[in-house]
Automatic annotation (TrEMBL):
This is 7-carboxy-7-deazaguanine synthase. Homodimer. Catalyzes the complex heterocyclic radical-mediated conversion of 6-carboxy-5,6,7,8-tetrahydropterin (CPH4) to 7-carboxy-7-deazaguanine (CDG), a step common to the biosynthetic pathways of all 7-deazapurine-containing compounds. One of its GO terms (molecular function) is magnesium ion binding. It is an enzyme of class 4 (lyase). Substrate binds at residues 24-26, 39, 83, 209. It comes from Olleya namhaensis. Residues 30-209 form the Radical SAM core domain. The lineage of its organism: Bacteria, Pseudomonadati, Bacteroidota, Flavobacteriia, Flavobacteriales. HAMAP family: QueE. Keywords: 4Fe-4S, Iron, Iron-sulfur, Lyase, Magnesium, Metal-binding, Queuosine biosynthesis, S-adenosyl-L-methionine.
Amino acid sequence: MKQEIQDLVNKGLMLPLMEEFYTIQGEGFHKGTAAYFIRIGGCDVGCHWCDVKESWNANLHPPTSTDVIVANAKKYSDTVVVTGGEPLTWDMTALTDKLKAEGCKIHIETSGAYELTGQWDWICLSPKKMKLPTQGVYDKAHELKCIIYNKDDFKFAEEQAAKVNSDCILYLQPEWSKRDTMIPMIVDYVMANPKWKVSLQTHKYLNIP
């Protein structure tokens, strides 16, 4: 990558854009609502069950001007979801400032592994054992979404719930390949511990992106 482009990426003025698309939010608090998704490449958290592993290597995704990303987003929706990869690998300040200037509501889906940058209307924190969130993300998260791959993940979920702010909404979501096994366990757990809610990847059931 040319140095001048790398400098713009480092400043968040260009970002490794993997894909962008208009669809229905399938998970968590805003499920069922229309949103424009911006998927940023680059992630070193390395979840073995990640369903977008092609996002991990930022070098595979072209550095794209935030002006271009914002221009595309505003054609479709006033709700924008920034996801990855791990978007907080990069400085999100420029992107979110420009989206805000266009009147957008901006959501982020993050593992929280890096310091929070940018201004957000909604922060969905989905922590991973391999690289735990920073305290700043715990403090500001609006929803905590813990992925349940096996029964040991309930303990991890409780540990994470103890670290977020008191207004944070708590979700347990089955890992897709384990849904048949884990959904009954999650249902029983939520009934026994009603501070939690069940989240499903409804977009997969609906067969939409």
